[in-house]
Amino acid sequence: MSKLAKYLNQHIIGNVFDRLNILDTYSTDRSILKIQPKLVALPKTTDDIQKLIRFSNQLALRGLRLPVTVRGTGRDKTGAAIGDGMIISTERLNHIEEIDLRGRLIRVQPGLTLGELNTALGMQGLCLPIDYDPRTTIGGLIANCPNDDASARHGGIYHYVERIEVVLSSGDLAQLGPIGSHALSQKISETSFEGKVYRRIDELLDKYADTVIDRGMQRFSGAGYANITRVRNAHHFNLMPLFFSAQGTLGIITDIILRVEVLPPPTRRLALTLRDTKTLLRFLDFVSDLDPRTLKVFDLRIIKETTTHGKQPDLLPRELGEGWLVLASFDDRKLKSSKKIQHCLEVLPVGTFVAEETVDNTVAFQEFDSTILSYLNDSNDGERSPIIDDVYIPRYRFEEFVEKLEMVSETLDLKLALFGSYATSNYHVRPLVDCTSMDGRKQIISFMQQYSQLVKDCEGSLTGGTPEGRIKALPIMQNFSEEEKKLYQEIKDAFDPHHILNPNIKLGAELTNTIRHLRTEPKSGIIRS
Distance (Å, rounded) from C-alpha 467 to C-alpha 457? Predict the structure, then answer.
């Protein structure tokens, strides 16, 4: 590997490393897996990425294996940002290249984080209205297409990307966006690798027409290449949708044009506690009709567990009991937000604890975020890393899901407190497991099996919030029809015929391989939601 690193360093502006301490740093993401790469590349230009991909592709043509995994800040929770070949990190491709204030368009590199982007846009009175971890890169948002907490109101990242530039598995550069029928005919007639991709995808849409239609009927799932349903319509043909939730398996995004919005008014928040699930659901349904920016719900056991660390929000009463914490936020104009909050207060049961955000208690509302952080980092004996996170549960099955979750909790002897977004029906549980022990790792596997079955029984989706990666792919593959598997495999083959791009996730995930790479030591640093 040292010879490869030296060779590549002679041909790119950026850097390629093979030192063990660096490899170890890039061997984990936010998942429960650890896979040490052979090389870590930090390209500085698009040309660097093209050279790295061409090198990997040329090795594949000779029967040698150096697959490529693209990575931003390593925020992926499914094991898709790690691999045993070459990691290509986009952390140095993090610039804003152009801003069109009049057209509200911005061109950025994929390694720019959401927080950095919105800080820069805020100075111009603009924003990208995504309510997600601010350390996530824009490239990572596209690769995972998360169901962020504000997506019910603002639509999510998919609705804000106008065009992308992509390095294909051949090393060729492609500009992707909607094209008309005449431009499509030209693309299909080309002999280039890009032309072959367009030709093949066009053929697959005809070959698997019924499967594509059936896939379009399945909502709330980013599994496989679900956005094949959005590639062709009566007005245009567009390969770009396939890259949403693709997790770096079809190409590497190097440039992005985003549409942004005017900065909304300051958010107004409401916090309250409710004792039983039926009352909770009635209230949440009422608030949902008011079109909130976010609508989050937390099992009160989460709050109570953090009191041992001195982290109980001052806004809440000292004695919490059983039940739920609801946090609702509105980003309408001041008067409209006030009216919505007043409507919420009017329908609450008598005696309900409630706190409305004011100028005087804004800081106190921030304590809720600190409380969740304490909960996720509240033990020296284990960790609350995401095992299976971001699952979709339909509203009409929420109560049943909560009841059956308690049964799973008792069976596995794990505390499974639920939290998530009712507005997007996207939920999380973070069992406390000791990954350093054999029993703990067996507990992880048992949880994955039983929790996956529970989500399925409640008509939910494991990939309703984020795609499958390595972790969720195992149960997800069982739900695909044979025709779906063939379709997704042929899409992968069209873009990546030698399987050099993140080959062991999505369709390539295997149970034995996943178990082999379960981490055997707690992840260092702070675990975040």
Answer: 19
**Range list of H helices, 289-361:** 300-305, 334-347
3-class secondary structure, 138: helix
Q: Which of 100-114, 147-161, 287-301, 364-378 has the lowest mean pLDDT?
A: 364-378
Contacts with 278 (C-beta within 8 Å, 6 or more apart), sequence order: 399
465 φ/ψ angles, rounded to the nearest 5 degrees: -110, -35
H or E element in which residue 99 lies: strand 96-100
pLDDT computed for residue 484 by the predictor: 94
Q: Which two tokens stand for residue 463?
A: 């990939």
> Among all chains, which residue has been given the structure tokens 């590497």?
252
SS3 124: coil
Helix (H, G, I), strand (E, B) or coil at 514: helix
460's tokens: 């939910």
For all residues of the chain together, what is the average pLDDT? 93
Tell me the C-alpha distance between 299 and 321, whole Å.
11
Can you give the pTM of this predicted structure? 0.95
Which residue type sits at 50?
A: Q
pLDDT value at 254 more than 70? yes
Q: Which two tokens stand for residue 143?
A: 């690769």
Distance CA 130, CA 151 (A): 7
Question: pLDDT, tens digit, for every residue of 277-294?
Answer: 999 999 999 999 999 999
131: Cβ–Cβ under 8 A, 6 or more apart, which residues? 148, 149, 150, 151, 293, 294
How many other CB atoms are there within 10 angstroms of residue 447's CB atom?
Answer: 21
Residue that the structure tokens 């693309």 belong to: 187
Mean pLDDT of 343-371: 89
Mean pLDDT of 99-106: 95
DSSP code string of 178-193: -B-HHHHHHHHH--SH
| pLDDT surpasses 80 at 379 | no
Cα four-point dihedral sign 132, 133, 134, 136? negative
Residue 317: per-residue pLDDT: 78
| Chain-centroid distance, C-alpha 368 | 22
Angle (nearest 5°) at CA 446 between 441 and 447: 95
Q: What are the percentages of helix, strand and coil residues in the chain, rounded to 5?
A: 40, 15, 45
Letter string b/e over residues 267-277, b meaning 16 or more CB atoms within 10 A of that residue's CB:
bbbbbbbbbee
| Higher per-residue confidence, 424 vs 436 | 424
Which two tokens mark 2? 């040292």
Strand partners, 298: 325, 419
d(CA 212, CA 228): 7
Note whether 502 and 69 are within 8 A (CB). yes
CA atoms within 13 A on the CB side of 441: 15
